[in-house]
Amino acid sequence: MSAAIPFAEDDTAKNNFLSRRQAIRSYVLRAGRMTEAQKRAIEELGPLHVLPFGEELLKPSDIYPESKPLVLEIGFGMGLATWQIALERSEYNYLGVEVHGPGVGRLLMEIRDRSISNLKIIQHDAVEVLESMISPDSLAGLHIFYPDPWPKKRHHKRRLLRPDLVELMASRLALGGYLYFVTDIEDYAEQALETLQACGSLKNAYEGFAPRIEWRPRTKFEGRAMVESRPSFELYFLRA
Hints:
The protein has about 240 residues and is α/β, with parallel strands linked by helices. It has one domain: Rossmann fold (3-Layer(aba) Sandwich). Helix content is about 35%, strand content about 20%. The protein has eight helices and seven strands. It has a seven-stranded mixed beta sheet, sandwiched between helices. About 35% of the residues are buried. The N terminus is likely disordered.
């Protein structure tokens, strides 16, 4: 498969490309209020479970107590589904990437209270983490559950599942690895399906949308969607 960045021999062009891409963020840093417990969790537990962002590739064998396939989640919110999956599917190691402090603090509290050893966090932009810290062909899976939908048409360029980022994500999956995407926004789901189908290194595991995958816990966003009678749309693609 070709590299995610099509400028391997031209550093100037590559840097310009990355600069343009990163100028279009798929998130906004909202000023959410952190509780005192969340602040303490970041201060006391962060050094144990939060990995610093860096320009060097991660070596999972140096991070996790056991060698297991690695699954990365982009934007875990408050981490409700994240810690449940890590506990119930303990045959994997997990890396959750989130920019918002309250969610990081909340998940750290769950890691402590539930003695979870196969889950680490990076508080940073997930695109930069994928580019700089994740080796090509290394991930067993990618979870993207209810990302920011950017509903206004002029903001669609900020959506996470756009062609350049899908190529990057696919390049980090190992052969047979999966990309699991869920949204309750129908037009985003249709756009995501089209974009994933256009990626030559990914293959849809189902015909069109996937059924609900039984091991995924319901998130608060899903509960809200159900109350508002909005169905969820699931996509499950494999690295071919």
